[in-house]
Amino acid sequence: MDWNFQTAEELAAALRAGEVTSAELTDKAIARIERDDKEINAICVPDFDRARAAALGADQARARGEDRPLLGIPVTVKESYNIAGVPTTWGMSPHRNFMPAEDAVQVSRLKAAGAVILGKTNVPVGLQDIQSFNEIYGTTNNPWDHGRTSGGSSGGSAAALACGFGALSIGSDLAGSLRTPAHFCGVYAHKPTLGLAANRGMVPPSAPALPVDLDLAVVGPMARTARDLTLLLDVMAGPDPLTLGVAHHLRLPPARHERLRDFRVLILDEHPLIPTGSAVRAGVNRVADALVDGGAHVERHSPLLPDLTEAGTLYSQLLVSGSVARFPVEPYDRLRTRAAGLSADDQSLDAARLRAMVFSHRDWLQANNRRELHRHGWRQLFAEFDAVVCPITPTPAFPHDHNPNPLERRIDIDGVEYPYFDQLVWAGLATMPGLPATAIPAGRAPDGLPVGVQLIGPMFEDRTPLRLAELLEQKIGGFQVPK
Protein backbone atom coordinates (compact mmCIF):
# COMPACT_ATOMS: atom_id res chain seq x y z
CA MET A 1 0.00 0.00 0.00
CA ASP A 2 1.20 3.52 -0.82
CA TRP A 3 0.45 5.32 2.42
CA ASN A 4 1.47 8.65 0.85
CA PHE A 5 -1.73 8.84 -1.20
CA GLN A 6 -4.14 7.64 1.48
CA THR A 7 -6.64 10.23 2.69
CA ALA A 8 -6.31 11.80 6.12
CA GLU A 9 -9.49 9.96 7.08
CA GLU A 10 -7.98 6.62 6.01
CA LEU A 11 -4.71 7.39 7.80
CA ALA A 12 -6.56 8.27 11.01
CA ALA A 13 -8.43 4.93 10.86
CA ALA A 14 -5.22 2.98 10.19
CA LEU A 15 -3.43 4.74 13.06
CA ARG A 16 -6.33 4.02 15.43
CA ALA A 17 -6.35 0.35 14.35
CA GLY A 18 -2.60 0.03 14.89
CA GLU A 19 -1.97 -0.86 11.23
CA VAL A 20 0.75 1.80 10.94
CA THR A 21 2.56 4.26 13.19
CA SER A 22 2.95 7.98 12.74
CA ALA A 23 6.72 7.47 12.69
CA GLU A 24 6.33 5.13 9.71
CA LEU A 25 3.98 7.50 7.86
CA THR A 26 6.32 10.42 8.47
CA ASP A 27 9.39 8.51 7.28
CA LYS A 28 7.54 7.46 4.11
CA ALA A 29 6.43 11.04 3.42
CA ILE A 30 9.95 12.37 3.97
CA ALA A 31 11.42 9.67 1.69
CA ARG A 32 8.95 10.60 -1.04
CA ILE A 33 9.76 14.32 -0.71
CA GLU A 34 13.49 13.58 -0.86
CA ARG A 35 12.94 11.42 -3.96
CA ASP A 36 10.48 13.56 -5.95
CA ASP A 37 10.63 17.18 -4.81
CA LYS A 38 13.81 18.07 -6.69
CA GLU A 39 11.69 18.28 -9.85
CA ILE A 40 8.60 19.88 -8.28
CA ASN A 41 10.07 22.20 -5.60
CA ALA A 42 6.90 22.30 -3.48
CA ILE A 43 8.51 22.00 -0.03
CA CYS A 44 10.65 25.13 0.32
CA VAL A 45 11.38 24.78 4.07
CA PRO A 46 11.74 21.14 5.16
CA ASP A 47 11.38 20.59 8.92
CA PHE A 48 12.07 16.87 9.01
CA ASP A 49 13.86 16.53 12.35
CA ARG A 50 11.00 18.16 14.23
CA ALA A 51 8.49 16.19 12.14
CA ARG A 52 10.08 12.90 13.20
CA ALA A 53 10.07 14.03 16.84
CA ALA A 54 6.41 15.06 16.58
CA ALA A 55 5.54 11.69 15.02
CA LEU A 56 7.19 9.82 17.91
CA GLY A 57 5.28 12.05 20.31
CA ALA A 58 2.03 11.25 18.50
CA ASP A 59 2.69 7.51 18.73
CA GLN A 60 3.43 7.82 22.44
CA ALA A 61 0.23 9.85 22.96
CA ARG A 62 -1.80 7.17 21.15
CA ALA A 63 -0.17 4.47 23.29
CA ARG A 64 -1.43 6.41 26.35
CA GLY A 65 -4.95 6.23 24.96
CA GLU A 66 -5.16 9.74 23.49
CA ASP A 67 -7.04 10.44 20.26
CA ARG A 68 -7.25 13.75 18.42
CA PRO A 69 -8.63 14.65 14.96
CA LEU A 70 -5.24 14.68 13.19
CA LEU A 71 -3.11 12.71 15.66
CA GLY A 72 -0.02 11.49 13.83
CA ILE A 73 -1.06 12.61 10.34
CA PRO A 74 1.69 14.24 8.18
CA VAL A 75 0.72 17.67 6.80
CA THR A 76 2.32 20.74 5.24
CA VAL A 77 1.88 24.47 5.87
CA LYS A 78 2.03 27.36 3.42
CA GLU A 79 5.26 29.37 3.82
CA SER A 80 3.33 32.51 4.76
CA TYR A 81 2.26 31.11 8.16
CA ASN A 82 4.55 31.80 11.09
CA ILE A 83 6.12 28.67 12.58
CA ALA A 84 8.52 29.31 15.46
CA GLY A 85 11.98 28.05 14.59
CA VAL A 86 11.81 28.29 10.78
CA PRO A 87 11.87 31.37 8.51
CA THR A 88 8.79 33.19 7.25
CA THR A 89 9.75 35.18 4.14
CA TRP A 90 6.67 35.44 1.88
CA GLY A 91 9.29 34.96 -0.86
CA MET A 92 10.71 38.46 -0.21
CA SER A 93 14.51 38.51 -0.36
CA PRO A 94 15.04 41.23 2.28
CA HIS A 95 13.27 38.94 4.80
CA ARG A 96 15.04 35.69 3.95
CA ASN A 97 16.29 35.36 7.54
CA PHE A 98 13.19 36.50 9.42
CA MET A 99 12.40 34.03 12.20
CA PRO A 100 9.05 34.46 14.00
CA ALA A 101 8.95 33.96 17.75
CA GLU A 102 5.64 32.08 17.90
CA ASP A 103 3.36 29.91 15.81
CA ALA A 104 0.42 31.27 13.83
CA VAL A 105 -2.91 30.44 15.45
CA GLN A 106 -3.66 27.87 12.71
CA VAL A 107 -0.28 26.20 13.19
CA SER A 108 -1.09 25.98 16.91
CA ARG A 109 -4.44 24.40 16.01
CA LEU A 110 -2.76 21.84 13.74
CA LYS A 111 -0.34 20.90 16.52
CA ALA A 112 -3.13 20.75 19.13
CA ALA A 113 -5.04 18.40 16.80
CA GLY A 114 -1.95 16.16 16.70
CA ALA A 115 -0.76 16.82 13.14
CA VAL A 116 2.87 16.23 12.17
CA ILE A 117 4.18 19.23 10.20
CA LEU A 118 6.65 18.11 7.49
CA GLY A 119 7.61 21.64 6.45
CA LYS A 120 6.51 24.73 4.56
CA THR A 121 5.33 25.06 0.95
CA ASN A 122 6.41 27.57 -1.66
CA VAL A 123 4.68 30.88 -2.52
CA PRO A 124 5.03 33.85 -4.92
CA VAL A 125 6.69 37.09 -3.79
CA GLY A 126 4.39 38.75 -1.27
CA LEU A 127 1.72 36.13 -2.14
CA GLN A 128 0.83 38.39 -5.08
CA ASP A 129 0.75 36.09 -8.10
CA ILE A 130 -1.17 33.25 -9.71
CA GLN A 131 2.15 31.38 -9.89
CA SER A 132 4.59 30.34 -7.13
CA PHE A 133 8.17 31.49 -7.69
CA ASN A 134 10.60 33.75 -5.85
CA GLU A 135 14.34 34.47 -5.66
CA ILE A 136 14.79 32.71 -2.32
CA TYR A 137 13.23 29.33 -3.07
CA GLY A 138 12.85 29.22 -6.86
CA THR A 139 9.90 27.97 -8.91
CA THR A 140 7.28 25.36 -8.03
CA ASN A 141 6.35 23.23 -11.05
CA ASN A 142 3.00 21.67 -11.83
CA PRO A 143 3.12 17.90 -11.07
CA TRP A 144 1.16 17.19 -14.28
CA ASP A 145 3.46 19.25 -16.56
CA HIS A 146 6.67 20.70 -15.17
CA GLY A 147 6.65 23.46 -17.80
CA ARG A 148 3.48 24.88 -16.26
CA THR A 149 2.68 26.65 -13.02
CA SER A 150 1.16 24.94 -9.99
CA GLY A 151 -0.78 28.16 -9.37
CA GLY A 152 -0.51 30.70 -6.59
CA SER A 153 -0.28 31.77 -4.01
CA SER A 154 -0.81 28.37 -2.31
CA GLY A 155 0.91 26.68 -5.26
CA GLY A 156 3.43 24.79 -3.16
CA SER A 157 0.64 23.30 -1.04
CA ALA A 158 -1.40 22.10 -4.02
CA ALA A 159 1.67 20.58 -5.70
CA ALA A 160 2.67 18.88 -2.43
CA LEU A 161 -0.76 17.26 -2.11
CA ALA A 162 -0.77 16.10 -5.73
CA CYS A 163 2.66 14.49 -5.19
CA GLY A 164 1.76 12.70 -1.95
CA PHE A 165 3.83 14.98 0.29
CA GLY A 166 1.47 14.87 3.28
CA ALA A 167 -2.30 14.27 3.42
CA LEU A 168 -3.39 17.85 4.13
CA SER A 169 -2.16 21.41 3.83
CA ILE A 170 -3.24 24.83 5.00
CA GLY A 171 -3.20 27.85 2.69
CA SER A 172 -4.87 31.21 2.24
CA ASP A 173 -7.05 32.89 -0.37
CA LEU A 174 -7.49 36.52 -1.41
CA ALA A 175 -7.55 36.15 -5.20
CA GLY A 176 -8.16 32.42 -5.62
CA SER A 177 -4.96 31.48 -3.80
CA LEU A 178 -6.48 28.24 -2.46
CA ARG A 179 -8.84 27.52 -5.34
CA THR A 180 -6.61 28.23 -8.38
CA PRO A 181 -3.74 25.93 -7.31
CA ALA A 182 -6.30 23.20 -6.47
CA HIS A 183 -7.80 23.61 -9.97
CA PHE A 184 -4.34 23.57 -11.63
CA CYS A 185 -3.07 20.54 -9.67
CA GLY A 186 -6.23 18.41 -9.48
CA VAL A 187 -6.82 18.60 -5.72
CA TYR A 188 -9.46 20.01 -3.35
CA ALA A 189 -9.52 23.31 -1.46
CA HIS A 190 -12.06 25.30 0.51
CA LYS A 191 -12.18 29.08 0.81
CA PRO A 192 -14.11 29.55 4.05
CA THR A 193 -16.64 32.28 4.72
CA LEU A 194 -14.83 35.55 5.49
CA GLY A 195 -13.96 35.65 9.20
CA LEU A 196 -14.73 31.99 9.91
CA ALA A 197 -11.14 30.91 10.58
CA ALA A 198 -8.71 33.00 12.66
CA ASN A 199 -5.76 34.34 10.64
CA ARG A 200 -3.36 35.68 13.31
CA GLY A 201 0.24 34.86 12.42
CA MET A 202 -0.43 34.61 8.68
CA VAL A 203 1.26 38.00 8.25
CA PRO A 204 4.11 39.44 6.19
CA PRO A 205 7.54 38.96 7.79
CA SER A 206 8.36 41.29 10.68
CA ALA A 207 4.74 42.54 10.87
CA PRO A 208 3.21 42.07 14.32
CA ALA A 209 1.03 38.96 14.60
CA LEU A 210 -2.24 40.55 15.72
CA PRO A 211 -5.86 39.44 15.39
CA VAL A 212 -7.04 41.45 12.37
CA ASP A 213 -10.41 41.48 10.61
CA LEU A 214 -9.31 41.19 6.99
CA ASP A 215 -11.37 42.76 4.23
CA LEU A 216 -11.21 39.92 1.68
CA ALA A 217 -8.55 37.37 2.62
CA VAL A 218 -9.16 34.08 4.43
CA VAL A 219 -7.15 31.06 5.58
CA GLY A 220 -8.37 27.60 4.67
CA PRO A 221 -7.81 23.87 4.10
CA MET A 222 -6.48 21.89 1.12
CA ALA A 223 -6.74 18.12 0.68
CA ARG A 224 -7.15 15.27 -1.79
CA THR A 225 -10.82 14.58 -0.91
CA ALA A 226 -13.87 16.62 0.05
CA ARG A 227 -14.30 14.79 3.38
CA ASP A 228 -10.70 15.63 4.31
CA LEU A 229 -11.44 19.32 3.64
CA THR A 230 -14.27 19.12 6.19
CA LEU A 231 -12.04 17.34 8.69
CA LEU A 232 -9.41 20.07 8.43
CA LEU A 233 -11.93 22.94 8.36
CA ASP A 234 -13.31 21.68 11.68
CA VAL A 235 -9.80 22.05 13.13
CA MET A 236 -9.31 25.53 11.61
CA ALA A 237 -12.75 27.09 12.17
CA GLY A 238 -13.46 29.43 15.03
CA PRO A 239 -12.48 32.92 16.10
CA ASP A 240 -9.17 34.03 17.57
CA PRO A 241 -8.95 33.24 21.30
CA LEU A 242 -7.41 36.70 21.82
CA THR A 243 -10.66 38.31 20.72
CA LEU A 244 -13.37 35.94 21.89
CA GLY A 245 -11.96 33.78 24.65
CA VAL A 246 -10.59 30.25 24.38
CA ALA A 247 -13.92 28.60 25.23
CA HIS A 248 -15.83 30.14 22.34
CA HIS A 249 -16.25 27.83 19.36
CA LEU A 250 -18.31 28.64 16.32
CA ARG A 251 -20.93 26.03 15.39
CA LEU A 252 -21.56 25.94 11.66
CA PRO A 253 -25.06 24.94 10.53
CA PRO A 254 -25.31 21.49 8.93
CA ALA A 255 -25.39 21.09 5.15
CA ARG A 256 -28.79 22.02 3.71
CA HIS A 257 -29.15 18.59 2.10
CA GLU A 258 -27.62 15.12 2.29
CA ARG A 259 -28.74 13.78 -1.12
CA LEU A 260 -27.77 15.07 -4.56
CA ARG A 261 -31.38 15.15 -5.74
CA ASP A 262 -32.34 17.65 -3.03
CA PHE A 263 -29.80 20.31 -4.10
CA ARG A 264 -30.88 23.38 -6.10
CA VAL A 265 -27.89 24.54 -8.16
CA LEU A 266 -27.21 27.48 -10.47
CA ILE A 267 -24.63 26.80 -13.21
CA LEU A 268 -22.52 29.68 -14.57
CA ASP A 269 -20.01 29.18 -17.37
CA GLU A 270 -19.85 32.67 -18.91
CA HIS A 271 -18.52 35.94 -17.48
CA PRO A 272 -19.08 39.29 -19.22
CA LEU A 273 -15.51 40.42 -18.50
CA ILE A 274 -13.54 37.41 -19.81
CA PRO A 275 -14.26 34.35 -21.99
CA THR A 276 -14.29 30.83 -20.56
CA GLY A 277 -11.84 28.46 -22.26
CA SER A 278 -13.24 25.29 -23.81
CA ALA A 279 -11.51 22.94 -21.33
CA VAL A 280 -12.94 24.75 -18.31
CA ARG A 281 -16.39 25.05 -19.90
CA ALA A 282 -16.31 21.27 -20.42
CA GLY A 283 -15.45 20.80 -16.72
CA VAL A 284 -18.39 22.96 -15.63
CA ASN A 285 -20.67 20.99 -17.95
CA ARG A 286 -19.41 17.64 -16.62
CA VAL A 287 -20.50 18.76 -13.16
CA ALA A 288 -23.81 20.11 -14.48
CA ASP A 289 -24.53 16.80 -16.22
CA ALA A 290 -23.72 14.84 -13.04
CA LEU A 291 -26.10 17.05 -11.06
CA VAL A 292 -28.91 16.55 -13.58
CA ASP A 293 -28.22 12.81 -13.67
CA GLY A 294 -28.37 12.74 -9.87
CA GLY A 295 -31.78 14.39 -9.87
CA ALA A 296 -30.70 17.82 -8.61
CA HIS A 297 -32.67 20.91 -9.60
CA VAL A 298 -30.35 22.71 -12.05
CA GLU A 299 -30.77 26.15 -13.62
CA ARG A 300 -28.43 28.12 -15.91
CA HIS A 301 -29.96 31.58 -15.44
CA SER A 302 -31.48 33.50 -12.55
CA PRO A 303 -32.65 37.12 -12.29
CA LEU A 304 -31.46 36.97 -8.67
CA LEU A 305 -27.77 36.72 -9.66
CA PRO A 306 -25.93 39.97 -8.79
CA ASP A 307 -24.52 41.83 -11.81
CA LEU A 308 -21.27 40.05 -12.76
CA THR A 309 -19.69 43.06 -14.47
CA GLU A 310 -20.14 45.24 -11.41
CA ALA A 311 -19.04 42.34 -9.17
CA GLY A 312 -15.79 41.97 -11.12
CA THR A 313 -15.11 45.69 -11.02
CA LEU A 314 -15.92 46.01 -7.32
CA TYR A 315 -13.71 43.04 -6.49
CA SER A 316 -10.81 44.55 -8.46
CA GLN A 317 -11.27 47.88 -6.66
CA LEU A 318 -11.38 46.40 -3.16
CA LEU A 319 -8.46 44.06 -3.92
CA VAL A 320 -5.99 46.65 -5.18
CA SER A 321 -7.00 49.53 -2.90
CA GLY A 322 -6.09 47.31 0.05
CA SER A 323 -2.83 46.00 -1.38
CA VAL A 324 -1.47 49.42 -2.40
CA ALA A 325 -2.37 51.15 0.87
CA ARG A 326 1.05 50.27 2.34
CA PHE A 327 3.10 51.55 -0.61
CA PRO A 328 5.84 54.13 0.10
CA VAL A 329 5.00 57.74 -0.79
CA GLU A 330 6.97 58.05 -4.06
CA PRO A 331 5.54 55.05 -5.94
CA TYR A 332 2.09 55.96 -4.60
CA ASP A 333 2.44 59.49 -6.01
CA ARG A 334 3.48 58.04 -9.39
CA LEU A 335 0.30 55.92 -9.40
CA ARG A 336 -1.79 59.01 -8.67
CA THR A 337 -0.27 60.79 -11.66
CA ARG A 338 -0.94 57.79 -13.91
CA ALA A 339 -4.53 57.43 -12.67
CA ALA A 340 -5.19 61.14 -13.27
CA GLY A 341 -4.09 60.70 -16.88
CA LEU A 342 -6.66 57.98 -17.65
CA SER A 343 -9.43 58.78 -20.11
CA ALA A 344 -12.89 58.90 -18.52
CA ASP A 345 -14.01 56.57 -21.32
CA ASP A 346 -11.57 53.85 -20.27
CA GLN A 347 -13.73 51.33 -18.38
CA SER A 348 -11.31 48.38 -18.66
CA LEU A 349 -10.42 46.34 -15.59
CA ASP A 350 -6.83 47.61 -15.87
CA ALA A 351 -8.17 51.18 -15.60
CA ALA A 352 -10.48 50.24 -12.72
CA ARG A 353 -7.51 48.73 -10.87
CA LEU A 354 -5.31 51.79 -11.45
CA ARG A 355 -8.01 54.19 -10.23
CA ALA A 356 -8.67 52.03 -7.18
CA MET A 357 -4.97 52.00 -6.24
CA VAL A 358 -5.37 55.67 -5.26
CA PHE A 359 -8.89 55.52 -3.78
CA SER A 360 -9.75 58.06 -1.11
CA HIS A 361 -11.45 56.75 2.01
CA ARG A 362 -14.68 58.19 0.60
CA ASP A 363 -14.17 56.20 -2.65
CA TRP A 364 -13.53 53.01 -0.68
CA LEU A 365 -16.65 53.46 1.45
CA GLN A 366 -18.73 53.87 -1.70
CA ALA A 367 -17.30 50.61 -3.07
CA ASN A 368 -17.91 48.92 0.28
CA ASN A 369 -21.54 50.08 0.26
CA ARG A 370 -21.96 48.54 -3.19
CA ARG A 371 -20.50 45.32 -1.78
CA GLU A 372 -23.22 45.28 0.90
CA LEU A 373 -25.85 45.50 -1.82
CA HIS A 374 -24.21 42.54 -3.56
CA ARG A 375 -24.16 40.58 -0.29
CA HIS A 376 -27.87 41.18 0.04
CA GLY A 377 -28.36 40.03 -3.55
CA TRP A 378 -26.53 36.79 -2.74
CA ARG A 379 -28.71 36.25 0.34
CA GLN A 380 -31.77 36.46 -1.89
CA LEU A 381 -30.20 34.12 -4.47
CA PHE A 382 -29.40 31.55 -1.78
CA ALA A 383 -33.02 31.54 -0.67
CA GLU A 384 -33.75 29.97 -4.08
CA PHE A 385 -30.51 28.01 -4.64
CA ASP A 386 -28.14 26.03 -2.42
CA ALA A 387 -24.95 26.42 -4.47
CA VAL A 388 -23.51 28.06 -7.58
CA VAL A 389 -21.15 26.07 -9.83
CA CYS A 390 -18.71 28.13 -11.89
CA PRO A 391 -15.10 28.32 -13.15
CA ILE A 392 -12.14 29.20 -10.91
CA THR A 393 -10.05 30.59 -13.78
CA PRO A 394 -10.77 30.53 -17.54
CA THR A 395 -8.08 27.94 -18.36
CA PRO A 396 -6.18 24.97 -16.90
CA ALA A 397 -2.61 25.57 -15.67
CA PHE A 398 -0.68 27.87 -18.01
CA PRO A 399 3.06 27.80 -18.88
CA HIS A 400 5.47 29.53 -16.46
CA ASP A 401 5.59 33.27 -17.17
CA HIS A 402 8.16 35.18 -15.13
CA ASN A 403 7.96 38.51 -16.93
CA PRO A 404 8.93 40.92 -14.11
CA ASN A 405 6.17 43.31 -15.19
CA PRO A 406 2.90 41.43 -14.61
CA LEU A 407 1.03 44.11 -16.59
CA GLU A 408 2.86 42.86 -19.71
CA ARG A 409 1.82 39.25 -19.12
CA ARG A 410 -1.10 37.76 -21.03
CA ILE A 411 -3.35 34.76 -20.47
CA ASP A 412 -4.05 32.68 -23.58
CA ILE A 413 -7.70 31.58 -23.76
CA ASP A 414 -8.24 29.27 -26.74
CA GLY A 415 -5.67 31.15 -28.79
CA VAL A 416 -6.66 34.72 -27.87
CA GLU A 417 -4.64 36.79 -25.36
CA TYR A 418 -6.17 38.76 -22.48
CA PRO A 419 -4.69 40.85 -19.63
CA TYR A 420 -3.13 38.49 -17.06
CA PHE A 421 -5.00 39.72 -13.99
CA ASP A 422 -8.41 39.72 -15.69
CA GLN A 423 -8.55 35.97 -15.01
CA LEU A 424 -9.14 36.78 -11.32
CA VAL A 425 -12.78 37.79 -11.84
CA TRP A 426 -14.08 34.25 -11.26
CA ALA A 427 -12.16 33.91 -7.99
CA GLY A 428 -13.43 37.33 -6.96
CA LEU A 429 -17.05 36.26 -7.40
CA ALA A 430 -16.93 34.50 -4.00
CA THR A 431 -14.19 36.63 -2.44
CA MET A 432 -15.81 40.07 -2.82
CA PRO A 433 -18.95 39.22 -0.80
CA GLY A 434 -17.02 36.85 1.54
CA LEU A 435 -18.83 33.64 0.52
CA PRO A 436 -17.52 30.10 1.06
CA ALA A 437 -16.31 28.28 -2.08
CA THR A 438 -15.11 24.71 -2.49
CA ALA A 439 -12.70 23.88 -5.35
CA ILE A 440 -13.17 20.36 -6.74
CA PRO A 441 -11.58 18.36 -9.57
CA ALA A 442 -13.90 18.14 -12.58
CA GLY A 443 -12.04 15.87 -14.95
CA ARG A 444 -9.22 16.59 -17.36
CA ALA A 445 -8.59 18.78 -20.36
CA PRO A 446 -7.89 17.11 -23.76
CA ASP A 447 -4.15 17.57 -23.12
CA GLY A 448 -4.43 15.72 -19.80
CA LEU A 449 -4.20 18.72 -17.46
CA PRO A 450 -6.59 18.77 -14.48
CA VAL A 451 -9.63 21.05 -14.56
CA GLY A 452 -11.42 22.22 -11.43
CA VAL A 453 -14.59 24.15 -10.70
CA GLN A 454 -15.82 25.96 -7.60
CA LEU A 455 -19.01 25.42 -5.65
CA ILE A 456 -20.03 28.73 -4.04
CA GLY A 457 -22.32 28.49 -1.03
CA PRO A 458 -24.27 30.78 1.32
CA MET A 459 -22.38 32.79 3.95
CA PHE A 460 -21.46 30.71 7.04
CA GLU A 461 -23.08 27.65 5.44
CA ASP A 462 -19.70 26.19 4.47
CA ARG A 463 -20.94 22.64 5.06
CA THR A 464 -23.38 22.96 2.13
CA PRO A 465 -20.79 23.29 -0.70
CA LEU A 466 -18.53 20.83 1.16
CA ARG A 467 -21.32 18.23 1.23
CA LEU A 468 -22.10 18.88 -2.45
CA ALA A 469 -18.39 18.39 -3.21
CA GLU A 470 -18.47 15.03 -1.43
CA LEU A 471 -21.56 13.88 -3.38
CA LEU A 472 -20.03 14.97 -6.69
CA GLU A 473 -16.79 13.17 -5.85
CA GLN A 474 -18.80 9.94 -5.47
CA LYS A 475 -20.46 10.59 -8.84
CA ILE A 476 -17.68 11.88 -11.13
CA GLY A 477 -14.53 10.93 -9.24
CA GLY A 478 -11.98 13.20 -7.61
CA PHE A 479 -8.22 13.38 -7.22
CA GLN A 480 -6.05 11.28 -9.52
CA VAL A 481 -2.32 10.69 -9.05
CA PRO A 482 -0.43 12.68 -11.74
CA LYS A 483 0.84 10.49 -14.56
Q: Would you spell out the secondary-structure blueprint of this structure?
A:
Layout: H1 8-17, H2 22-40, E1 43-46, H3 48-63, E2 74-78, H4 105-112, E3 116-121, E4 133-134, E5 138-139, E6 141-142, E7 145-149, H5 155-162, E8 168-173, H6 179-185, E9 188-191, E10 218-223, H7 226-236, H8 241-244, E11 264-267, H9 278-293, E12 297-299, H10 308-324, H11 329-340, H12 349-357, H13 361-384, E13 387-391, E14 410-413, E15 416-419, H14 425-431, E16 437-444, E17 450-456, H15 463-476
Parallel strand pairs: 2-3, 2-8, 11-12, 11-13
Antiparallel strand pairs: 1-3, 4-5, 6-7, 8-10, 9-10, 9-16, 13-17, 14-15, 16-17
Helix pairs in contact: 2-3, 5-6, 7-15, 10-12, 10-13, 10-14, 11-12
The domain tally reads 2
- The N- to C-terminal Cα distance equals 18 Å
Biggest sheet overview:
11 strands, mixed
Q: What proportion of the residues is helical, as a percent range?
A: 25-40%
What is the tally of beta strands? 17
The residue ranges in which pLDDT falls below 50 over 5 or more consecutive positions are none
> Average pLDDT across residues?
96
Structural category: alpha+beta
- The largest sheet has its strands arranged as 1-3-2-8-10-9-16-17-13-11-12
Task: Kindly report the name of the CATH homologous superfamily of the largest domain.
Answer: Amidase signature (AS) domain
User: What overall form do the CA principal axes indicate?
Assistant: globular
Portion of residues in beta strands equals: 15-25%
CATH class of the largest domain: Alpha Beta
Based on CA atoms alone, the radius of gyration comes out at 21 Å
